[in-house]
Amino acid sequence: MTLAAYALIDSDAIKHNIQQVRMYAPKAKIMAVIKANAYGHGLLRVTESLTDVDAIAIARIDEGIRLREAGCIKRIVILEGFVCKQELDKLLRYKLEIVVHSAGQLEIIQNYQGQENISVWLKLDTGMNRLGFKAEEFLLAYQKLAVCSQVKQPISLMTHLSRADNLKSLVSSQQISMFKQQVKGFSGEKSIANSAAIIAWPDSLTDWVRPGIMLYGVSPFSARIGEELGLMPVMSLHSRLISVKNIAAGEAVGYAGSWVSKKATRLGVVAIGYGDGYPRYAQNGTPVLVNGKKVPLVGRVSMDMITVDLGLQIEASPGDLVTLWGNGLAVEEIAKYANTIPYTLLCGITQRVEIKHV
Ligand SMILES: *Cc1c(COP(=O)(O)O)cnc(C)c1O
After folding, report:
1. Which residues pair with 295 in a beta bridge?
2. Whole-model pTM?
3. pLDDT at residue 275 is higher than 60
4. Mean pLDDT of all residues in 64-68
5. Which atom of ligand 1 is least distant from the CA of 165?
6. Which residues share a beta bridge with 123?
7. Which residues are within 8 A (CB) of 247 and not within 5 positions of it... i.e. 6 or more apart?
8. What kind and span of H or E run contains 147?
9. Nearest C-alpha to atom 4 of ligand 1 is from which residue?
C-alpha cells in the first residue's frame, strides 16, 4: 500500500550538504541549525545524521531537552535563550548553551548563585533590531559577563545578518564590519554567518558558521535553487493519485469553481492538501510531478486534496506516485508559485505527513 502524504528524508543528502558547508567555509566550525523540528525534517532523526558537525543550534529550551533526553551529547546552543531564573536552571541542568541578548538575562545570570559554569554566547545587534545588545550597550554587557565567576570564560560572541540573502545590499558588509570592530581584542569564539552569508559573504566567515536552510539542500537566495549551489535536496514530499477522471471543456473544478477547463481533459485528484502543509495559496499552474512527469495544479487547494490537469497524453491511474517537491522538483520553485519562501513550506509540513528517513 502506498501511503497518502509522506516525506522522504535523504540522510546522505544531509551529509553531502554538510560537506558543501565545509567547502564554502573550510576553516570554520559548524553549528547546525535544526530549529522548528529541523525545518520540518524531524529533529531527532536529522540529529543522527549530524555526526560531523561541531554543535547544534535550536530556538527553544524544550527542543534542547528533547535532544538531551534522546541521548544527544553534542554542544547545543539555544538561540532565544531564557526569560527567567527557572528557565536558566533548566538550561544548566541539561547543559545547554545560552545566547544572551538582553539586559534582563544578564541580570539573572549575575544574580545566579549555583556552582555552574554557564556557557554564554553574547549577541550583538548589528541592525536586525530583533535580539541582541546595541553597540552602545555591548561593551558593558561583555564586561559584566567577563567578571562573573559562574560564567565560563572566554565568552563566545555572535551576531545575525538581516539581509545576507540580498547580494546587492551594502548592509551585510556594514553589519560584518560593525561586529568585527565591536569584538576586536575579545578572545572568545565568534560567529556571524547563516547559510546565505556562508555562500555570499566570505568576510562573515569567522570561527563558527550557523547553516540552516542549506543543510536541507535548499537555497537561501530567491534567484537560485540549491542544486545550482552544489546542494542536494533532503526532503521529497510525496502523495498519490486517488482518482482520475475525464472532464469536458468549460467545467469548473474545485471550491468556488475558480478554474475552468478550456478543453476536454483528464483530471487527477491527489491526496494532499493544506491539512498536510501543501500551500493553500499555490496558484494554478504550480508544477506537480505525476509518475515523474510535470503537470499543472488546477483549481483551489483543499484541506485533503489537490487537482491536477493530466492532459490527454499522460498515463496515470489511482495509486500512482505524485511528487509535490524534492528530487526533480525544487521546493524553491513551488515557493515562488505559492508566493512564499521555501523555509515556510518545509516547516509547514503537518503531523499527518509521515516522515520517513532513508
Ligand atoms: C535560523 C538561524 C540561522 C540559520 O539560518 P538559515 O538562513 O536557515 O541558514 C542562523 N542563525 C540564527 C540566529 C538563526 O536564527
Report:
1. 288
2. 0.96
3. yes
4. 97
5. 7
6. 158
7. 253, 261, 264, 265, 266, 267
8. none
9. 212
Angle at the Cα of 307 from the Cα atoms of 301 and 312, rounded to 5 degrees: 155
pLDDT at 2: 55
Does 194 contact ligand 1 (Cβ within 6 A)?
Answer: yes
4-42 per-position pLDDT tens digit: 899 999 999 999 999 999 999 999 999 999 999 999 999
Indicate which residues carry an active-site annotation.
Answer: 35, 255
211 CA from centroid of ligand 1 (Å): 6
329 pairs with which residues across the strands? 326
Q: Is the CB of 210 under 6 A from ligand 1?
A: yes
Per-residue pLDDT at 200: 98
Residue 302 has φ and ψ, to the nearest 5°, of -95, -175
The whole-angstrom separation of Cα 175 and Cα 226 is: 25
Q: Write the single-letter amino acid at 193.
A: A
Q: Do residues 119 and 150 touch, judged by C-beta distance below 8 A?
A: no
pLDDT digit string, tens, across residues 121-147 = 999 999 999 999 999 999 999 999 999
User: Residue 343 CA: which ligand 1 atom is closest?
Assistant: 8
- The verdict on the CB of residue 231 being under 6 Å from ligand 1 is no
Contacts of residue 307, defined as CB under 8 A and 6 or more positions apart, other chains included, come to 253, 254, 259, 267, 268, 269, 270, 297, 298, 299
Q: Is 238 exposed, middle or buried (0-12, 13-18, 19+ CB in 10 A)?
A: buried
Q: Does ligand 1 have an atom closer than 6 angstroms to the CB of 212? A: yes
Strand partners, 75: 55
- Residue type (1 letter), 194: N
Q: How confident is the model at residue 225 (pLDDT cuts 50, 70, 90)?
A: very high
Protein residue with least CA distance to atom 6, ligand 1: 212
Measured torsion, CA atoms of residues 322, 326, 330, 332, in degrees rounded to the nearest 10: 110
